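Cross-posted from the bioinformatics board.
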Amino acid sequence: MSWVKEDVVSFFQLFCIKVVKTGRVPQHIAFIMDGNRRYAKKHNEKTAAGHSKGFDKLSETLKWCLDLGIPEVTVYAFSIENFKRSEEEVSALMDLARDKFQRLIDEIDQINELGVRMHIAGRLSLLPEDLRKMVSQAMLATRYNNKLRLNIAYAYTGRDEISRAASLIVDGVKNNELLSDDIDDELVSHTLELGEPELLVRTSGEVRLSDFMLWQVSNSVLYFTDVLWPEFTIWNLLAAIIHFQRHAPPIKDEEPISDSKLQFLEKLEDRRWRDLEKLVNC
Amino acid sequence: MLSRLLRQFLFTLTHLVVNVLVAVQNVYSRFWAKEDDFPCNQGTENDIKVILKHLPNMKKKPKHLVVLADTSEHSLHSLALVVIWSLVAGVPYVSFHDITGELKENEEKLFLEVEKCKKGIPGCIKWSKMPNLNGYTNGTQAHTVTVNIFTSHDGRPKIAQCIRDIANNKVSCKREADEFTAQELGDALALFYPSIPDPDVILYTGSLCSAHGFLPWQLRLTEFVQLSTDHCINVNSYVGALYKYNKCDQRFGK
């Protein structure tokens, strides 16, 4: 199964997508894809099969988001806490990721044609060397795409992301790239890897964030649904978007960011790309 | 052109239908609540009976309960009652997240309202910002509730302030590797907040679920539980929320 599944939308579904699209569509949507293991249990399958079904559902969802014109999607794929799961399950999940990223690199033309830009957010130093190289390669290869930005939170927790951003900022002050007076919540928001989603969807009936995008969802619409992730359908997605349309806070104009902050952020971005290139080439 | 109009029409129609369905559901649930619950909703004494009746069914009680308080919807009296019910139920920490910014200004009034409602109920209510005035306990069984009021200023801006203080060397933060770990930054952040446990449950009213800028760091595992769809806070919705909290099994990572 490839990353963006084609031919999953019937004519009627496409029509409904177009109707919903008439209204305001979230510019960034985040998913906590919960329920793969419960799905496997329910259908008497192995846990790994559940996770694999979960990935298939992600590729379908990406197609729906492309059709809806949502420019940014963030998914919670693997938490730092997940390393505590059984060795068998962790290694199966790593294998699944290896398989999918290899596939992505093989199919890079299709991804580039669709204009999908990949970003893997998390403490990548926790990943096995080969996987780390693969995800860096995927990010570099899709760097200039701009139709849909797909952020995959991998080896990620929200607290860890804030801590890493704090390190970058403290170092910035130490190296005279930044004045300590410039440090405010706006700067922290921009230093974090992930932007603010307008809508967060969590499947399988759990009603907490589980350390996902803690900073970013401060003012987002949270939507919890009972359906298990592998059973998530276009109708569940449209229901979430209609809920968003009913309750979304008004769009705030973003204030322009000061030059000194901008310079610092650009330096960070440059450094990040250089680090990725180093990783791939070594 | 025609298809555009048609789409626009269907879009409006869809939202109209959803509005009607939601309205019908609200009327139904309010009617149902009236039939069933109103007779016993006459005073604090009855509230206490209701809570004590249901309490044995609860397998777990939250240690720290947060209410997203919207002063344009909730009266000080109903917020004060949440403190009283929590005192009876044995929830040791109750916090209000002040969405409008008005509650913080009226902290004194809320304090007096809680005192008024508390009359005759054993236990002790502590306010983080005020000296202990009412610290009497009645025997060994009495509970204690600590009340805090937070605003969105305690959320992101405070974390940014912590990072600024670390950068200025005003606050020390251990750093063993290249980057801070969540544990290390968490230790530094703890200096900026009262030492209370992370919230277990956050109660909201109305159909929109949002954190409204509530403390992002502490929100990690907090369950979002809806108190009521119509912004009404009564003892039945409170007990209902505790039941909902009990159904959530806490499973993190594993």
